[in-house]
């Protein structure tokens, strides 16, 4: 049976600011055996793709922005979700959202940024990986020239990230859902999740019926971990580990155990 591996990125494949050579080699062997590997991440496509290539990680698909964008092994965008501009504008006015040190809006090939304080990680990552950031003002939020499929926030305190997420979900949960991830918050359409991202990927590529191995480490990974009886890593919080079928030391260890 065809096996499809779906790995989260930050905290799962990318840990301690590196993708290990062991993990990269395990992915190579996994794909050489005829199985498929992809990353299901909250990151923008243009920030994730160059990092994977830097570490020598090849892939068959990417589901970026928590499933808001799906691309193939040639980095061609196959599908993109949409958050209505009026919703982006309205969310930006919420009191707890405004504590964020940036408002980041993800499109296919660039990020639009405003309400940003000096030192926000978005500028740092963009400069390191040569990814285009377009500065805007808050007046521009509801008439950006491209489809926006994820709205991201950043906080210095995880409690602030959680509180902002709860406020977004309480006011706009019928149209979007906010996922807290430590000090970050990803806001995506309410019908999008990492579980949905995997299901949509299977349909797009004709891989229905494959055996799915999903692995992650945070709240936004729970939909795919629970939906596919998936796994987590040893560095995940106990609350996440308790939801997983098995805990592995690394993504490579999961692949090797199921090869």
From TrEMBL:
One protein family per Pfam: Hydrolase_3
Class of this enzyme: hydrolase
Keywords: Hydrolase
Molecular function in Gene Ontology: hydrolase activity
EC number: 3.1.3.-
InterPro entries linked: HAD-like_sf, HAD-SF_hydro_IIB, HAD_sf
The protein, known as: HAD family hydrolase
